[in-house]
Specification:
alpha/beta; 2 domains; 7-stranded mixed β-sheet; 4-stranded antiparallel β-sheet
Amino acid sequence: MKQVYYSKNKSSLWFINEQEGKLRISGADSLCKEDIEVHNPDENWCDAFCQIEIAGSITEISGGFLENFRNLSCLILSKSVTLIETTDDLRELLGQNKAVIHAAHGSFGERFAEQNGLEFHPENILLAWRYNEEYNESTSITLRFFEDGSMDILYDYITSGWAASNNGGGTITRKMPGGYYPGCSVQEFAELFPSVYYEQIIKNPEVKAFLEKQKQADYSIKMKETGGY
C-alpha cells in the first residue's frame, strides 16, 4: 500500500512511497533542504529509499536535499529538472553508492551524470504518435532502452473499435530496423519507419540527442580499436 508524506515547508510538495525502496517526489519549482521535513514521518524515513524519482514540474534541487537519502543509488530525473546544486557531500554520497542516473537523452540529467562520472541509463523515447480516424485507432512508436545496453522498438496500438466488444488493442515488439547504424542522420533514421511518422521523428530533439550520443560512442570504440589512428 502506498504511503504519502506531505512537506511541512510546502503545501504543494509530497513524497509518495511506492514501496520496495522507491520514492516519488512530486511538486513544482525548487526543492531545498527544509522541504525534507514532513508531517508524521517514520523515524529515519529517508533511509528506507534507494530509488528516488523527481517528478512533477520540479526544476531545481538545492544543496542539502538529496543528501538526506543516504542509501540513494538510483536517481530518476524528469525533463523539467535543469539544476542540481552539487555539494561535496552529494558527490561523495553518489560516488560511494555507485548511483545510476535515469533521464532523457540530451537532458540536464544526462549532463549531470557525465559531469559527475555516474552511470547513465536513458529514458525511453516516444518517437511518434498517430491517430487513424477511419479505424478509430491510435498508434505510438517507442524506442526502448535496456540496462544491458540493448534497444528495441515498441509499437503500441489502441482501438475502441466500432462496438464496445471490440475495445482493445495490442503491442508489437521489433528489433532495431536493419538499416540503422551508429552515426546515421536524423533523416536517415526517420526513413526507417513508415512515412507518416517521418516529420515527427526528425523534429524530435530526443532522437537527435540519441543519435549524436550513438555517433560519439561508436567513434570512441573505433579509436580504441585502432589505437587512436
